[in-house]
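Worked example 4.2. Below are the chains of a multi-component assembly; read each line carefully before continuing.
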Amino acid sequence: MRKFLLFVPFVLFLVLGVVLYLQLGKDTQYMPSALIGKLLPEFTLVSLQDDQVYTKDDLPKGPYLINFWGTWCPACHVEHPFLMELAESGVPIIGIDYKDQKAPAEQWLEQKGNPYQLVLMDELGNFGVDMGVTGAPETFVVDSSGVVVYRHQGVVNAENWPELKGYMK
Amino acid sequence: MMLLKGVALSVVMFLSVSTFAQEQMAFSSELNKIRYQSLVEELRCPKCQNQSLADSNSGIAVDLRELVHQLIEQGKTDQEVVDYMVARYGTFVLYRPQHSSATFLLWYGPFILLGLGILAFVCVIMANRKRRGRAL
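Applying the procedure described above to all two chains together yields the following C-alpha cells:
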C-alpha cells in the first residue's frame, strides 16, 4: 500500500503530461461561435443592388453561405476569386458588405465580378455584432432549416472548403 | 501672458492625451459612466485576445464599446449587457467566468486540492505520531 502511494505523483505527472500534450499545436486563435445550432438572427438590411429592405424571410431556402466582406479588407481580395468559383459551381452565397460604403462596394463588384445572390449593407456593423463577427472575411453556413451550423473566420479557399461543404445540408 | 499660454497649452495637451485611448462619450449620470468603465474592463475583446474592450483599439472593440454605452443608456442592467455579449460572442468574452458545471473545476478545483493537501498532511502527522508512540 505504501509503495503504491509513492507512485501517485508519477501517475499525476503522466496524466498532466498527456493532457498538455494533446493541447499542443491547437490553434489558440480559434474561437467557437456562440451562434452554432441557433437560428439565424432577425435583421432588416438594405440591399446594395436595388435599395430594397430585406429581412430574414427574403433569404433563399438553405443551405447557403453568408459571407461578411468589405472593400477595406485585404483578405477579402484574396478570397474573392474562390467565391467566384463557388458561385459558378452553383453555391448560393449571401454577401454582407460589412462596415463599408455603397460606392466602393458597387465598384468592387463591377470590376471583380459578383459571386453573391444578394448583397446586404451592414454599414454600422450591427448585424455583424448579432452574428458574433469580429472582422472580415467571415463565412457562415446556414442549413436548410435556417440554422447556423458552421462559422469560418478568415479566407475560404480550396483547402478549407471541403470542411464547409460538409455542413451544406 | 507667456505663463497663461503655457498653462492653456498643457491643459489642451492633457485633454487630448486623456481622450486618445477612448472616444468621448456622454453619459446621463455619473453612475452610468462608472458602470460603463467597469463593464468595458471586464469584457474581453473577441478579436484581440488578452485585451479587454477598454484596452483595445481594434475596430470591433470600438464598436462594442459604443454598444455597451448604448445599452447602458437604454437602461439595461449590467447583467443584461453581459448576457447580450455572451449570446453573440460566447462565454469567451467574460474575463470573470460564470459559475457553471463547465467551470466548476476552475472555480473550486483549488479548494478541492487544498482540502486534499490538508487531508494528506493530517494523515502523515497522525502516522508519524503513531510511529513515535510505538518507538517510545
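Take a moment to check your reading of the output against the notes. The first helix of chain A runs from residue 2 to 6. Chain A is about 35% helix and 20% strand.
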